[in-house]
């Protein structure tokens, strides 16, 4: 399956929070940021004018909060965050809790090979029905699908609450005179 990314809008700002710098490089490779050629696995083709994602990297929760606060001050908030659960200092739960205080509409995926909490405990603590889980090792396809979903919700201004029920829509009011 090939994913074609085209320009036509501002790049979606994504924050990757992981204490493993190698993960930063892998995510960047998978998302093929700013490259005008297919990726080595042939999964993504980025056209000349496309820069679909603008990535920033943090190696700790504290650094993630600093970057998020700076982005808010500059008027360039992050729309998506991919956050590891196990990190020195603040864990992913504490990090995401603090990120939500700064950017309540942030779309988040918890990315981890090891979970110190059950998924239900994470959902209960963070109170976000649209929260996503991306288990390591993830495939390029899983990463792309998750990022695309979260980026779409971020562009639409969603808080993630409706994503738990993607097929449900509010009934439309009938037009006057009908």
Write up this protein.
The chain has 178 residues and is an alpha/beta fold. It has one domain (3-156): Response regulator (Rossmann fold, 3-Layer(aba) Sandwich), CATH 3.40.50. The chain is built from five helices and seven strands. The protein has helices spanning 21-31, 61-73, 92-102, 119-126, 140-155, and strands at 3-5, 12-17, 44-46, 53-58, 80-84, 107-112, 132-135. The protein has a five-stranded parallel β-sheet with strand order 4-2-5-6-7, sandwiched between helices. A two-stranded parallel sheet has the order 1-3. β5, α3 (92-102) and β6 (107-112) form a beta-alpha-beta unit. α2 (61-73) runs parallel beside α3 (92-102). The chain is globular, with a radius of gyration of 17 Å. 25% of the residues are buried.
Number of strands: 7
Q: Which fold name corresponds to the CATH topology? A: Rossmann fold
What class would the helix/strand composition place it in? alpha/beta
Helix/strand order, N-terminal first:
EEHEEHEHEHEH
- Counting H and I runs of at least 4 residues, what is the number of helices? 5
CATH class term: Alpha Beta
Largest beta-sheet details: 5 strands, parallel
CA-atom Rg in angstroms:
17 Å
Query: Hey, roughly how much beta strand do the residues contain?
Result: 15-25%
Question: What's the helical proportion of residues?
Answer: 25-40%
**Arrangement of strands in the largest sheet:** 4-2-5-6-7
Number of domains: 1
Q: Low-confidence parts, pLDDT < 50 over ≥5 residues?
A: 1-8, 33-39, 42-48, 160-178
Q: CATH superfamily membership, which one?
A: Response regulator
Shape: globular
Q: What's the mean pLDDT score?
A: 80
Architecture (CATH level 2) name: 3-Layer(aba) Sandwich
Question: What distance separates the N and C termini?
Answer: 45 Å
């Amino acid at each position: 399956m090939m994913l074609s990314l085209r320009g036509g809008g501002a790049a979606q700002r994504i924050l990757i929070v992981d204490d493993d710098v190698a993960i930063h490089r892998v995510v960047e490779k998978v998302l093929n940021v700013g490259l005008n050629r297919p990726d080595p696995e042939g999964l993504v083709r980025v056209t000349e004018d496309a820069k679909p994602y603008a990535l920033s990297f943090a190696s700790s929760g504290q650094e993630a909060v600093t970057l998020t606060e700076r982005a808010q001050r500059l008027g360039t908030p992050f729309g998506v965050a991919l956050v590891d659960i196990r990190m020195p200092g603040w864990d992913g739960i504490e990090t995401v809790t603090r990120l939500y205080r700064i950017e309540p509409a942030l779309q988040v995926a918890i990315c981890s090979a090891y979970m110190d909490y059950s998924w239900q405990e994470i959902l209960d603590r963070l109170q976000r029905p649209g929260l996503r889980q991306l288990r390591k090792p993830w495939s390029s396809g899983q990463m792309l699908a998750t990022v695309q979903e979260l980026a779409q919700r971020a562009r639409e201004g969603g808080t993630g609450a409706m994503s738990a029920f993607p097929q449900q829509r509010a009934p439309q009011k009938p037009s006057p005179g009908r």
